[in-house]
Amino acid sequence: MFFSGRSSAIRTGLLRSIGHPAGLAAWTLCSMLAGCGGGGTHGLTQTPARFALFEGGDLPPGSAVFQMSIHGQTFGVASINGFGGTSFNGLVVFNPATGKADAPIALPTTLSFSGFNAGAGLEKSDGTPVTSCPANFPGGTALIGRKLFIALNNFDTGTFVYNPGVVLIHEVRNGILQPPRTIVLGETAGATFEALYNPSALKAFTDPVTGDPRLAVVCGDDAFSQFYGRTPAAAVVVIDPLSEDILSVSHLGAAAAGSGDAVLASDGKLYVGSSVKSEIYEVDLSAAPPVVTRGATNPIDVTTEADPNQISSIALSFDENTLYALNSNDGALTALDRTAAFGEVARFEDFRRSIADRDQATGNPFANQPLTLVVRPGRPGVDYQGPGLYVASILLDAADQPATDIRTTIDTVTLDAEGTPIDVGLDVFFHPFSPKTDLQALVQHPELPGRLYAIEGATGIVHVVRPTSLDP
What is the pTM of this model? Predict the structure, then answer.
């Protein structure tokens, strides 16, 4: 994907002088720097119960929070997606310890591919040539050293076609965020360059041979490919974050995996959820080059009663022996045993309880959607008492109509000593927020287990929840 002097790297186009909003280079990372905005270690008593990602407490019209990630005690990033008009596409960096949010960072207005890989050309997901496109729909983020990596979806909302996926890189120098560099995701095939689409999750890991840092990018392809007679082709791209070269592309086969969720085990196994099927794919990043061990032809099947379905969220148990998966459309939580060929050890369908309340005129099957799964750190019954899993579910009275009556809850799941789900607590924590917004994400602070962050998608309001408040 980038030009590289290393023979092991796949030749790519690295665009460096991408346009950026005026003043972007002067934007400072207050939330990242110790002592700026209250950096350091903070207890929950020093953290506000709620804070706004945008000044005034509301996102611009047509905008919504897509993902939020926390990369340290004082550094978090929220990806904001916009849908035309005066909406906003970009990022908000915030301090999760103090609730202080910095000024929003708008994406470049346009990505130009005019100087990319001359002679090879680029195509949209429908096969039409593309020389430039709007930069939109940021997804997953990763912080490696002083580089912030952001996946860009670049979806054309007018034609339902994807432009080539890219990763933006913002380097931080002396606390200043530098103008972005851009990596076009794809690989050369003879005289052509085959772009990849819909990048979502970003996962940092260590090269098993060299010990160097690496970045895995899940290119999910798209659920719309079936409408254009194109076979989906999801892939995992590995990037060297230091040289910014693409080192490998591992194809998952005829699979769409754009759900935006993936989880990486400490043994180097990356698990990716499908966006159109009830299945999970496995890529062994500990191998050099990475190996697809469970792809589209031999996926990890997850029991489902809905067709179509998707894996909305996946996670690992404290000892990584159990893989948890949420089915979006049938509202089920499934636990799979990683040590026994991913055999099912537990399944709870309780999260689909709102189906009886769905719109009777249409019978819309999307009335209930469990969106996010969070695992409580530590060994159940030893490091903590009470529930060990939290599920954020959105309940829509009429999902095919404009959202005017939404209830979101955080449900709890009790685990046994081995991490197997044994009981469910429903409606433990009701959404106390706006009746016109959903709980888009639920995030566990990686270093401070006493904090859960619940994010309203439409407003950008973040609520800090104590896990103990969710105990029975």
Answer: 0.85
